[in-house]
Structure formats: C-alpha cells, structure tokens
Amino acid sequence: MTQPRIAFIGAGNMAASLIGGLRAEGVPADAIRASDPGADKRDAMSREHRIEAFAENRDAVAGADIVVLAVKPQVMQEVCRALAEHLEPQTLVVSIAAGISCESLQRWLGASRPIVRCMPNTPSLLRQGVSGLFANPQVSAAQRQQAERLLSAVGLALWLDDENLIDAVTAVSGSGPAYFFLMIEAMTAAGEALGLPRQTAEQLSRHTALGAARMACESEVDAAELRRRVTSPNGTTEAAIKAFQAGGFESLVQQALNAAARRSVELAEQLGR
Ligand SMILES: NC(=O)C1=CN([C@@H]2O[C@H](COP(=O)(O)OP(=O)(O)OC[C@H]3O[C@@H](n4cnc5c(N)ncnc54)[C@H](O)[C@@H]3O)[C@@H](O)[C@H]2O)C=CC1
Ligand SMILES: O=C(O)[C@@H]1CCC=N1
C-alpha cells in the first residue's frame, strides 16, 4: 500500500496523540500535515513531530488522501463549511469529534463523501487507547484499512456496524478514562483517611489500577474470575465488595454510562443543526 498523505485539522491533544502514534509506527513526517490557528500548537507539531503545520486549514488539506477532523464539536460546522470547496471528492474524511454524525458532516461538507466517524480516548497519548469506528457506505475497502491503520497506531481499533453505537462507545471508553481516574482519586482519599501518607496512598492506588488493568487485558480469564481470585471467603475483599454492592455500585455505573450516552445524543441534536 502506498503511504497516504494525511492532514490533521486541529493540532490539539487528540491530534498530537494520533500524530505521535503514526510517527512511532514509521509514517514519514512528510506524509503528515496539520493546521491550527494557535502558533504554539503549530510550533509544537514542527518541534516534536517534524511535520509541517499551517495556520490555514485549506493549506494543510491540499493534496491530502485523508483529512482528520480533530477540532472541538462546537467549531466543526464552521470548519467543514469552509473546507468543503478545498477537498477532493474521494478524500477520506475521518472525524474524531464527539456527537457529530456522518449525516451532519455530509451536509456541512456539501457532497456525498467517504467518512469514517470514530471515538478514541486519551490513553492514545501512550499508544494505549481504544476506539470505536464507523464507516459510511462511500468508504472503500482500501480507505477502511487506512482508517484502521490510523487508529491502530495509538491502540486497539474496533469497527461498529451501526453509527448509533458510537454513543455507547463514548459512554464506555471515550469518557471511560475519567471514571478510572475518579476511582484512583477516591481510593487515594480513602487510603489517606485510613492513615496512609497522601503520596503513598496515591502510589498504591495508581499502581493497583495499572496492575489490575494489565491483568484484565492480558489474562485469559474474565474480570469476574480475576475478582474472585482476589476475594478470599469471608476476607477483606469480600467485605469491601459487599459494601460496594450495598451502595448500589453496579446500578450507579449503569446510571453514569446512561447519562454519558444521553449527553452524546443531546450534543448530536444540538450541534447537528
Ligand atoms: N479529549 C478526549 O478525551 C477526547 C476528545 N475527542 C474529540 O477530539 C476532538 C479534539 O479534542 P481535543 O484534542 O481534546 O481538543 P483540543 O482543544 O486539545 O484540540 C482542538 C484544537 O483545535 C484547534 N482549533 C480551534 N479552531 C480551529 C479551526 N477553526 N481550525 C483548525 N483548528 C482549530 C484548537 O486551537 C486546538 O488546538 C473533539 O472533537 C473531541 O470531541 C474524542 C475522544 C476523546
Ligand atoms: O467529555 C467529552 O465530551 C469528550 C468526549 C469523550 C471524552 N471527552
């Protein structure tokens, strides 16, 4: 496969993660361009990734095979409408924005275009991300592979056959890192309340999260079995799990993810107009 030329519109956190992953995978610097109104963002792109960065979006997309839309959802309409006349009809558009549908992108880009919509997450920064991807019918088999390669450079990429499932992916893994950070914060505070020095409580909590996540990803048995292996009958873990369950832990997690998915739908309704 020849190396596609990739243009990033917006050079913020997620774009920097994806570009870092692509460069680490051996994609040459001259195959990647970016644009951002922020001079600091452009300087960082040139300095850290050796790629050319432009102030004008239209300069970044000239000759691109793939255009990655990596701006905030609130500016997406304006960005797409201004870019429409500068894109070739066959250019693959990849959007990572939360709550922006393929249908809205089509309308703002003014033509029937190949679009891959995806939802990555921030551990992409460490190439430990996970993302859900949806391709509209205009996307060719070769373009599907290109999109998969882009997201696989920063973690696991999973295809979805229904665009509506992106709301669920957003609730589980897009926002998900924040839930685990909240757990680390809460465990640190609880450890401190039990008498540990704050720094010790924090290190214990962070490294427990890291070890548990690695076991869950690398083990052949499921999380429930791994949990059972920690839980001695009538022991300390059982006491803690009973306290979680008495407080409605599972139902609370369900409510939290429902709220995130609902918000994703609301954003789509508000921003899609
Ligand atoms: N942060 C997260 O956890 C996740 C974010 N996303 C999505 O990724 C997208 C980008 O988010 P972040 O990288 O976190 O935001 P960010 O704020 O770090 O990056 C956005 C960049 O766009 C630039 N920008 C603003 N107006 C522009 C314009 N007219 N043309 C070109 N660039 C422009 C900004 O200067 C900024 O550098 C959002 O749509 C978000 O929904 C998706 C998954 C996870
Ligand atoms: O909170 C948000 O809306 C974005 C989308 C997923 C993660 N951050």
From TrEMBL:
<dbReference type="InterPro" id="IPR028939">
    <property type="entry name" value="P5C_Rdtase_cat_N"/>
</dbReference>
<dbReference type="InterPro" id="IPR000304">
    <property type="entry name" value="Pyrroline-COOH_reductase"/>
</dbReference>
<keyword id="KW-0521">NADP</keyword>
<dbReference type="GO" id="GO:0004735">
    <property type="term" value="F:pyrroline-5-carboxylate reductase activity"/>
</dbReference>
<comment type="pathway">
    <text>Amino-acid biosynthesis; L-proline biosynthesis; L-proline from L-glutamate 5-semialdehyde: step 1/1.</text>
</comment>
<dbReference type="Pfam" id="PF03807">
    <property type="entry name" value="F420_oxidored"/>
</dbReference>
<keyword id="KW-0963">Cytoplasm</keyword>
<dbReference type="Pfam" id="PF14748">
    <property type="entry name" value="P5CR_dimer"/>
</dbReference>
<keyword id="KW-0641">Proline biosynthesis</keyword>
<feature type="domain" description="Pyrroline-5-carboxylate reductase catalytic N-terminal">
    <location>
        <begin position="5"/>
        <end position="99"/>
    </location>
</feature>
<keyword id="KW-0028">Amino-acid biosynthesis</keyword>
<protein>
    <recommendedName>
        <fullName>Pyrroline-5-carboxylate reductase</fullName>
        <ecNumber>1.5.1.2</ecNumber>
    </recommendedName>
</protein>
<dbReference type="InterPro" id="IPR029036">
    <property type="entry name" value="P5CR_dimer"/>
</dbReference>
<dbReference type="InterPro" id="IPR053790">
    <property type="entry name" value="P5CR-like_CS"/>
</dbReference>
<feature type="domain" description="Pyrroline-5-carboxylate reductase dimerisation">
    <location>
        <begin position="163"/>
        <end position="267"/>
    </location>
</feature>
<dbReference type="InterPro" id="IPR036291">
    <property type="entry name" value="NAD(P)-bd_dom_sf"/>
</dbReference>
<keyword id="KW-0560">Oxidoreductase</keyword>
<dbReference type="InterPro" id="IPR008927">
    <property type="entry name" value="6-PGluconate_DH-like_C_sf"/>
</dbReference>
<comment type="similarity">
    <text>Belongs to the pyrroline-5-carboxylate reductase family.</text>
</comment>
<comment type="function">
    <text>Catalyzes the reduction of 1-pyrroline-5-carboxylate (PCA) to L-proline.</text>
</comment>
